[in-house]
Write a structure and sequence with these properties.
The complex is a heterotrimer. Chain B folds into two domains: about 5-60 and about 380-390 and about 410-430, Urease, subunit C, domain 1, CATH 2.30.40.10; about 60-370, TIM Barrel, CATH 3.20.20.140. Helices cover about 30% and strands about 25% of the residues of chain B. Chain B contains 13 helices and 18 strands. In chain B, the strands form four sheets. In chain B, strands 1, 2, 3, 4, 5, 16, 17 and 18 form an eight-stranded mixed sheet that branches. In chain B, strands 9-10-13-14-15 form a five-stranded parallel sheet. In chain B, helix 2 packs across helix 3, helix 5 (about 165-175) packs across helix 8 and helix 8 (about 215-230) packs parallel to helix 9. The longest helix of chain B is centred in the middle third of the chain and has 17 residues, at about 215-230. Chain C has one domain (about 1-135): Rossmann fold (3-Layer(aba) Sandwich). The chains are: A alpha/beta, B alpha/beta, C alpha/beta.
Chain lengths: ~325, ~425, ~160
């Protein structure tokens, strides 16, 4: 029994727990392909996928590229470093041009929340959101879920605390939706000025102090602190942030139990996370990266799904093994 | 022999005379001649009398919209004074006031005169210019209120933007007293609102959009009310959108401070939920807020804390709105949907009745901005709106007279429609419904 | 069948038994344990899921779940026996051959199936067959195994029956 994901993957909020489970279960066998000598299956042979990245991103784009190429798809990278006022026109015209070139799938990363939805509403190709503004980053959320599930064997009831700038984080939002739908308990911890004002309505537990969060959590997902937050007046300094919210060996040791450490990367070592934590025995940061390719392969595979009408016709013609 | 028009058999509602009954209205030339149950019979046989059958409809003083953006000069491809005046007429408005955030800004007598001239050429609804408070709306130096008023300006405003400097707002209120005009302020504290695209709340948190907290409006509202108290000037608060603002206005009126306030139809009908899916037709400033704010504003319209309803009609080009939410411009059109939205969300559910609606859409705007109109008294200008309060229709933006198409009501079925709009005794709009 | 396999290979050296998901894997396990009991040798056993190599992915509708693929040894120069429950059009085996090619180059690949129901659409033939049957295209044959279905049986039914 399979559950269709629809045409696009725009976020985890619109998905059901069963759909998320389907993606995670589908990602399992794809992990194995990356261990082979020939890291390729012919599944998406002949498909054309465009990586449309309006924001610079090396790691996510490379991860998607590996996923696409390991499925034998043809990939085209379009990077737009334009900061022109006419960003909006660029997106509409880009959508029309892609449509005209008969692209099968588009992976889009854009600085404006809602950009993936904007594109998906206007073209027939499958659209995968690789991060839109501060809204969602669904494949990151999924690989975080997969990494947690690998370690805890289940997501039900585990306690995960997201630490950092939740207000501006699409990774945080995707994690909150994904974890709650899979039955996990979610906490957030950060300076109040970096938490959405409505956070209390989002079904999470709010911790003011990171020590409390560490007492409570089975796993911490540590968000990158962006330097712009200082200049915009949200918090005073990096040093203060590190002193008050930084995840250090000393803080973790006080918990007297092992806490799993996740981080979406790239890390500001010494700011939100200390090196000995990032490189320590409970860090699964590198597993996240490995799982990222598998999850993205699973998503591409599931979205490129067959057309039900053709399936009906095939059934009637009696095609089978 | 001057032209004459008889509006026959409608329900005539004129709050300025506490009149509400089936009656006829006789117009001779540009003025109201008579009003009453037997006026039609007495007038029968007059040479050249045009009779309009108004049975089943309401006849009221013409609607006046004190807040709209007509984009001319500068953005004629989006709207002109002519297309805007025609759109106003189609919506039942006999007069509108045009905000000065044009390009160039309407901040001097020549610019104001231009608006007046274009308005008379348009030959549809009356258009009264509003002049800028500050030169270029830059918030630094006062514009020449006197010269602008002499050229036809009826108020001053830097709308589009807030008056950031409290000192400038104070001097504007004091200086405006000389000419007896209101100072209309767009209440928005810029550092709180900066970068915001919608109301700050659970929806903005979910959609990942920066929010504008209610306090951004309320802080400036109370500032303006306090300055009105200090200066004795008349401050008019534009497009109020929060419960907090309503409470502050009540506070001011309780102390007899000269503050008036307006609300727009969208703020008494829609909430931030309309932004779901990142629909840019639900993006305006101030933004759509919560159901609680809507309820507070509806109650304020009922009890008169909000004096009048204005449209803040703000057309934008399709291409401009066809972009990612954060980058799309603020504003929606409203002249041709205002009456229907007000009836659908205020009158139909019984929050206010038609006489109160007409008070808020005609009598109060005229009174607050000291414009002619808002009455069907004998000798008044014959600016009359005839409308069918139960007409049901589907909003099709492509058929509007305005050049703009940006409305969140597209495809919705609304109740209430203007059937005939008369300005100075001339029919400027006749509905084909 | 286990005996025939050993005979085909002239012993158990270099032998790798690879079952096709899902029931082919169970059959392969039976064969391996039979060989172990009779010859006293543990032949390496693998599993192959061919979903990603199917030639009908565009028409098969909602994506079928992908099972596990596990090839525990290097198959270069080995003698691989592909084991499956039913052989029909031959497309599954074609996909399996493509997939094995991505793992290495066996010296020989042979095919062992429990049921051959005819109806080939590709030039693929089994080397070892449990039983050959002939049924209508509108009928289906299902092999049930203990581990998956709770019993061992071969069932012939009309197409719309059990999954």
């Amino acid at each position: 029994m399979t559950l269709s994901l629809g045409k696009d993957l725009l976020g985890l909020e619109p998905l059901s727990g069963d759909q998320i489970k389907l993606i995670l279960d589908t990602a399992e066998p794809f992990k194995e392909i990356s261990e082979r000598v020939i890291k390729k299956v012919p599944t998406l042979r002949g498909a054309t996928i465009v990586n449309l990245f309006f924001e610079a991103s090396t790691r996510t784009r490379i991860s998607f590229e590996f996923a696409e190429k390991r499925l034998s798809a043809d990939t085209v990278n379009v990077a737009s470093t334009g900061s022109s006022v006419s960003k909006g026109e660029t997106l509409v015209d880009t959508a029309r041009n892609l449509e005209a070139m008969r692209i099968d799938m588009v992976v889009i990363r854009h600085g404006a929340s809602g950009a993936a939805r904007f594109l998906a509403d206007r073209i027939e190709s499958n659209v995968i959101n690789a991060g839109d503004g501060t809204h969602e980053h669904p494949t990151q959320g999924l690989l975080d879920l997969l990494t947690l599930r690998d370690h805890f064997k289940t997501l039900e009831g585990i306690k995960v605390c997201i630490v950092g700038d939740v207000l501006h984080s699409r990774v945080a939002r995707s994690n909150i939706w994904g974890l709650t739908k899979m039955g996990a308990q979610v906490g957030v911890c950060g300076p109040r000025s970096l938490l959405p004002n409505a956070i209390d309505e989002m079904g999470v537990t709010v911790f003011s102090r990171v020590e409390e969060a560490i007492e409570w959590a089975d796993a911490l997902n540590i968000l990158r602190l962006q330097l712009e937050r200082m200049t915009a007046g949200y918090i005073p300094s990096q040093r203060e942030y590190n002193r008050v919210f930084g995840i250090s060996r000393e803080r973790l040791d006080r918990a007297k139990r092992d806490i799993l450490i996740l981080h979406p990367g790239p890390m500001n070592r010494g700011v939100e996370i200390d090196s000995d934590v990032a490189d320590g025995p409970f860090s699964v940061i590198l597993d996240q990266v490995t799982n990222g390719v598998a999850v993205r392969m699973a998503v591409l595979y599931l979205l490129s799904g067959g057309k039900p009408e053709l399936a009906e016709a095939a059934k009637k013609a009696g095609g089978e093994r | 022999m001057s032209r004459s028009v008889l509006l026959r058999g409608g329900r005539v509602i004129d709050p300025s005379q506490s009149f509400d009954q089936i009656a006829d209205v006789l117009i001779i030339g540009e003025k109201i001649e008579a009003m009453g149950a037997r006026v039609g019979n007495d007038a029968a046989g007059r040479d050249g009398l045009e009779t309009i059958d108004c049975s089943g409809t309401v006849v009221s003083p013409g609607f006046v919209d004190v807040h709209c953006h007509l984009r001319e000069p500068g953005r004629e491809e989006v709207e002109t004074i002519a297309s805007g005046a025609r759109a106003a007429a189609a919506g039942g408005f006999t007069a509108v006031c045009a905000m000065p955030n044009t390009d160039p800004v309407t901040d001097n007598q020549a610019a104001v005169g231009f608006i007046s001239r274009q308005a008379s050429r348009a030959d549809a609804a009356r258009v009264y210019p509003i002049g800028a408070i500050s030169l270029g709306q830059r918030g630094e130096a006062l514009a020449e209120f006197g010269e602008m008023v002499a050229a036809g300006a009826v108020a001053v405003s830097d709308d589009g933007k807030p008056v950031v400097s409290a000192h400038l707002m104070r001097t504007a209120l004091e200086y405006a007293r000389t000419f007896g005009i209101p100072v209309a302020d767009h209440c928005e504290e810029p550092t709180l609102a900066h970068g915001g695209a919608m109301n700050e709340g659970i929806v903005s948190a979910r959609l990942g959009l920066k929010g504008i907290p209610s306090e951004a409006e309320e802080i400036m509202a109370i500032r303006d009310i306090l300055l009105a108290r200090r200066t004795g000037g008349h401050v008019h608060l534009c497009h109020m959108s929060t419960r907090g603002s309503v409470e502050l206005i009540r506070w001011g009126k309780d102390r007899h401070i000269n503050v008036t306030a307006e609300v727009c139809p969208h703020h008494i009908s829609l909430t931030e939920d309309a932004v779901e899916g990142y629909d840019t037709n639900a993006k305006m400033n101030p933004p759509l807020r919560t159901a609680d704010d809507v309820a507070a504003l509806q109650e304020a319209v009922r009890d008169g804390t909000i004096d009048l309803i204005a449209t803040d009609h703000a057309p934008h080009h399709y291409d401009e709105k066809e972009r990612e939410f954060a980058n799309a411009p603020n504003g929606i059109i409203g002249l041709e949907t205002a009456l229907a939205v007000n009836i659908t969300w205020l009158v139909a559910p019984g929050i206010i009745d038609l006489p109160v609606l007409i008070e808020r859409m005609s009598c109060a705007p005229a009174r607050v901005f000291k414009l002619p109109g808002g009455t069907l008294r004998r000798g008044a200008d014959a600016d009359v709106t005839v409308f069918d309060p139960s007409a049901s229709w589907v909003v099709e933006p492509a058929r509007f007279k305005t050049k703009g198409r940006n409305t969140p009501y597209a495809g919705k079925t609304l109740q209430g429609r203007a059937t005939c709009t008369i300005v100075g005794g001339r029919v400027i709009h006749r509905s084909d419904a | 069948m286990a005996d025939e396999i050993v005979e085909l290979n002239n012993g158990t050296d270099g032998l790798v038994i690879v079952g096709i998901q899902r029931r082919g894997v169970q059959l392969a396990a039976h064969i391996v344990s039979t060989i172990s009991a009779r010859e006293g040798v543990e032949v390496p056993q693998g599993a192959l899921d061919i979903t990603l190599y199917r030639d009908d992915l565009q028409t098969v509708g909602p994506r079928p779940l992908v099972g596990q693929t596990r090839i525990p040894v290097d198959i270069d120069g080995m003698h691989v026996i592909i084991v499956d429950d039913v052989l029909y059009t031959g497309r599954t085996i074609r996909a399996a051959l493509d997939e094995l090619a991505d793992f290495g180059r066996p010296s020989r690949i042979a095919l062992a199936v429990l049921i051959d129901r005819g109806g080939r659409e590709l030039p693929i033939q089994p080397d070892i067959v449990g039983k050959k049957i002939s049924i209508e295209p509108l009928q289906r044959v299902d092999v049930l195994v203990d581990e998956v279905d709770g019993r061992n049986a071969v069932v012939i039914a009309d197409r719309e029956a059990i999954t």
